[in-house]
Hints:
B: Aldehyde Oxidoreductase, domain 3; five-stranded mixed β-sheet; C: Ubiquitin-like (UB roll); 5 helices
Amino acid sequence: MHLPIFTHRQPADVAGVVSALAEGSGAKVLAGGTDLLVNMKHRIEMPEKLVSLKKVADIRGISLEADATVIGAATTLKEIRQNSELERKFPALFQAAMSVGSYRHQAMGTLGGNLCQNTRCRFFNQSWQWRQVRSLCYKVGGEECHVIGRKHACFSTYSGDVAPALLVLDASLRIAGPDGPREAPLSALYSGEGRTPLTLGRGEFITAVVIPGAAARGKSRYEKFSLRGSIDFPIVGAAVWRGDGSVRAAYTGVDCAPVRASELEAELAGRELTDASLKRGANLAHKAAKIAPTSVHPVTFKRELMGVLFVKAMRAIS
Amino acid sequence: MKVLNVVGRRIPMHDAAAKAMGQAQFTDDLELPGMLQGRLVRSTIAHGRILQVDVSRALALPGVKGVITGRDIPDRVFGIVPKGKDEHALARDKVRYIGDAVAAVVAVDMETAEEAVRLVRVEYEELPAVFDPLDAIREGAPVVHDNVPNNTSASIRKEWGDVENAFAKSDYVFEDSFYSQAVNHAPLEPHAAMARYDPQSAELTIWSSTQIPYFLKRNLATTLLIPENKVRVIKPKVGGGFGGKIDMFAKDFCACWFARELLRPVKFVYEREEVFQNTRQRHPMYITVKTGVARDGKILAQRIKAHADGGAYNSTAPLMITLSCFFIMIPYRIENLFYEGYHVYTNKPTGGAMRGHGIPQARFAIERQIDLIAGRIGVDAVEMRVLNAIQPGEPHPAGFIINTCGFADSVKEAAKAIGWTEKRGKLPFGRGVGIAGASFPSGVANMAHLSSGAVVQLTREGRVNVLSGAADIGQGAETVICQIVAEQLGVPMEDVRITAADTGICPLDAGTFGSGVTVRAGNAALLAANDVRGQLFPFVAERLEASIDDLVAADRRIWVKDSPDRGMSLTDALQAYQYADRPLPIVGRGAWIPPTEQPTSLLTKNGNFSPSYSFMTQAAEVEVDTETGKVTVIKMVTAHDCGQPINPMLVEGQLEGSIIGGMGQALYEDSTCIDGQQYNPSFLDYGFPTAMEMPEMESVHIDTDDPLGPFGAKEAGEGTQLAPAPAIVNAIADAIGLEFHRLPVTPAMILEGLRKKQGKAEGTDSSPFYRRHYKEAGVEPGDIKTFEDIRKVPKIEKGMFRDVQKNEPFPYGDMLAVPREKITIFRQPLKRWSGASPK
Amino acid sequence: MGKKTVLELMINGDAFEIACAPNMTLLEALRDKAFLTGTKRGCDTGGCGACTVILDGEAVLACLTLAVEAEGCDIRTIEGIARDGKLSSLQETFVEHGAIQCGFCSPGFIMSATAMLAEIPSPGREEIRRHLAGNLCRCTGYAKIIGAVEAAAGKDRGGEK
């Protein structure tokens, strides 16, 4: 399967990336390539220009800034997995990173790339040939969603492992762009909609992820459910964090964006964590997401898993 | 186990080092000057007439050298089974499934060829499609092939003994239905072919990733309309087949066609998606089994009905359904059997031979039902299998000649190795053990003329060259043949070179299917090696003044048994042979066909199917995560009777690979087809087991020595993929008390089953009405374990319901098992059922 | 066709000049331009690991690496593992343990395992499994492959080479 034609740039610094992204109309960042290049082979993404991060200085590596941990967005998932400090302080991040795809994907894939991965759907993530059987779907530039049968709507599912872990760790992003750098909470990255899942503006890209020191003063865990022990995206993934009397929970694989389970969190805020209270929380988990049948796995199954994985994760850190 | 000088030893494959260095050449590794790349245009509808194919834009693309459609090629169908031929290389008038090949393009490179595919426009008249065999057999269903109006393109109905009579005499009769899913072979090497045409000799040469070089040759000749002696098929290294490379494919035909038209070499390589959708798959099957047993579990009769989802074309249909029928007759003694099986066309990807070839599906059904029956009548599942096991040498109801059979031993050994007595029914909830038995032929005899030839040359300097038609696809056929020859001639493996399979040079072999290669090609090589011995050894015997029967050969030396100093080196012997003016090289030849009493008559008469049969039992221990439904296979044990293994390490390799494949079939794999389109044609979405899924695997060798196999060997490639799936599903039943009748068993199914079970339990707990009656009967629902126990269940009569309705709240009384707010509708029939009043 | 430039790729210590457009993957460059066909194409979308090569010491998927991005890197393929005609310990144990059947997945496994052993000389069995889980094999059932890697680790530790 040959890649479509594109031009390729390898800027040497962040400013170079921003200007390369901002010029013309169809430019995308190339980080590890494990998501984008597959989509390009399938011709569901056909950027005119790829702006590689390979030679960009200063966006790779793990450092401390006062109390906060700063991870360059081009840091590979393998580098995260191999960092014992990260494993100790932010187990959910460690567990999420080491569960992404296979170890080959982790050697290539980056933190930023994993966060920005495109949403997924059984009608979308298919080759050009496969998709000729029906009209172009809304996400690819057509009119209709084949999952729900509605026009001008997209319900594709966010399926990255790392995002829910970083959400419960209260992470924020450093974003470079034509109007200068900005910071934003991770949750603000996601539009909550399937066709344009990210809120990054033209010319913007993530340069770093910042995890506040307070996150290390709680316990966290990422619980991934997939059929196989490698290669698979999560069917449902749940991340939890508990500390200072509160519980945070976030999910992937259940909505167009990774989601925080706010009703569950509200239920458990300030409460003693017992089997009964955890079960009550678990029963509220499914309210965090609108699960669409974008995969072959039954929606009811995913819904049930949300509660199950929450309890499993909480038990593991009690 | 026989361990000789070479045979019986754990020897690496002769080409393992080359493969480890990346030097082994697979079809896509080959390149010829001026070579063009080809790609296929495929149907986007499941069923329809082809109205128009517009190739003009594709032809106009720079770099495109040719485009053809079904109308440009001869109107000739192909198929691996002559009576089932029904497929054109490129669809001519109709497309019959999403992905049916409609046109082919060749270009100077792959990028251009892919672009050209996108420029071909096809206009169809869409026709109604049918996607389930049970729908396809109904009156009025869409007709997939006009010459098969009822869509049933192959069928078999056979009875042995008198089934109805036997049912009448049975103490119990049970009927259960099962479903086995579409599984893809998923060989790591995609299907590929490269062809070249020589206009001077008018000879076509094709290198193809195939399991059947000689059948491919025949089909190419027929479809290309060229004489068979002008087609040469060379099999390079093949990266796995598992049955999926048994057949000609569009890539073979089109590579040849364009090579001849354009006088340039042409290569076609399938995308992974095409391997999933457009080659072959294991037939999904609906199977109903009705079994009559005696009180002790002895099987008296079976009646089986099977519908195989054939997809759009036949491939091996008549053979597959026949095998599925006949191999119910082993490993258990079934005196009375009625089998009816139907291969039904649907507008879906085509089914074909896949490791086990119709038998895994039947085995799943039968082995599951044995456990169900054992549970219902209160008999141990292991004992029931031993009770019904075939014994060697006894007369067989279908006329099979079973010279060696270690089945009963294999059941006991597998049970012992998994810890059956300590574990079955005794492990904590969520953990369980299960067992299943199987048997497989070592090649088939009475189905066609399936023979094999070999030539062995012993050169002046003691090198051995073997020519064989055996198609090694990674299972080690070439290595096993070399071992046999090396053993017979007393040389080490490194002195033997094998050339296989090149139809222009090597003698015929039928191909790698039916697990017949070791027996068939091995025996041919053995005969050829013995022919060489027969020329050299009398000469050596004379020189050593010994009887020929007293000669021993090993390590490049020939000597008199028990007198090692009375001998000579092989090279000395050959030199003496030369100086005695005997002709060199010494050439031996052999051809072998399984003994056949009645040729090709299996559908009408009983007879022996195969020279020998392997037997095995597999046992699994599983752990079910009852919160998520995920199943972990902790251990798989195989007790295996494959006769005398020529190479125990290769046999283990077959076993271990089979197990993972069987596990995939049980838990992970399913070519999910919705409205005729596969939703997971990729390694990402199709549940191909990874190293993380691998269980602990143990194998126990059951020693038998087969008279017909070379050195006593029987098959070892396919039988071991029959029992893992039922063993695992049987283990799941032991672990969580849920009986699954379909594959794969997914976490979602398990969770749903567990919830229902819990709900039922909660139902009796929270319905005061039922609680009352159970209490009065002195029974708990958990007490109901066997068929006999059903007599304990309290009988609820109509009058009881009437009484209950006298109490509040009307009309439920105390019958409700759920809160009243959950009820949305209440229905009560106004009339009694007409006819017999309820008893 | 995209605009071609000439790249210099360092493959197994040798410099290869390759003319290609940005949309050529490293896998295509290796197989179609450098004629190093030991690296295999099993699926072209990162799902099987048959295309594993070692790039600057990391085992990566060549089908999802752009050739242009491999310029300036140290690229090792299966052809570069045996030295002076002698198999590496891992290649030897693969052969001896029956870890190779059809051989199509073997180069990918050997590359993944070689990279792993360079980083982790004494891996535990679970670690080996996780490192190799991105390489699919349909023939062997993985048991002998893992055994071969364990044996090679033991050999290298014992000083044999």
